[in-house]
Design a protein that fits this description.
The structure holds two protein chains of two kinds. Helices cover 73% and strands 0% of the residues of chain A. Chain A contains six helices and no strands. Chain B has one domain (10-62). The chains are: A mainly alpha, B mainly alpha.
Chain lengths: 139, 63
């Protein structure tokens, strides 16, 4: 009987924890790539995601890539901004510290710009995956 | 940027393939074994189809 009571009281607590994790994990994953997996103790996956996304973003910057500002102009510029925004904390840091070039002047800088956009898009995939783990849809 | 990284199109594409394949593998499959297989599959597709097939196709279009 005592076991039944403890089990029934543990269930809402576990559900509340899962509920809060479903909010926390995607938010943390967006801010710090891979951290959504790390806070759920998926260490290897978390570090691999973090390494891949951060490396792509940093390589993009090193290639003189451009970080898009919010804009309502050309469609490709809008999509570039949306992609960049996916990188979360990296994008915020990039805007704060004025990283990246202002114009794409040669082919290498264009590769870099694409690397930065794709890093953001890959981070969105990582955010969704962290959410799926938090709600129990994925192990 | 003080030290601009200069890479060829091929190097950039292979680097892209490596990182994108890792993320695809982890996020699109459930078990570590499946993740590894899918990441490898994505990498091969990026390099073989994305680089070589598309590259030769564009060469044919150009000539």
């Amino acid at each position: 009987m005592a076991e039944d009571t403890s089990t029934s009281s543990a269930r809402p607590a576990a559900a509340a924890e899962a509920g809060s994790m479903a909010l926390l994990a995607p938010a943390v994953a967006w801010l710090i790539p891979g951290a959504g997996h790390l806070i759920q103790k998926r260490w290897i996956r978390g570090f691999l995601l973090m390494g891949s996304i951060v490396a792509m973003f940093v390589m993009g910057l090193a290639m003189d890539g451009k970080i898009y500002n919010p804009n309502a102009g050309d469609l490709l510029d809008i999509l570039g901004f949306v992609g960049d925004l996916g990188a979360g904390g990296l994008y915020i840091a990039g805007r704060l510290f004025d990283w990246g070039s202002t114009a794409i002047t040669y082919a290498g800088a264009d590769y870099g710009t694409k690397f930065i956009v794709v890093a953001g898009l890959l981070n969105i995939m990582s955010v969704v995956d962290a959410y799926h783990i938090a709600i129990g849809k994925k192990q | 940027m003080i030290l601009a990284l200069q890479v060829s199109h091929f190097t950039a594409a292979v680097t892209f393939a490596v990182f994108a394949s890792i993320v695809f593998g982890i996020t699109q499959r459930n078990t570590p074994r499946e993740m590894l297989r899918f990441a490898g599959y994505c990498f091969v597709m990026f390099v073989v189809v994305g680089l070589f097939v598309a590259g030769w196709f564009m060469w044919l279009l150009h000539h």
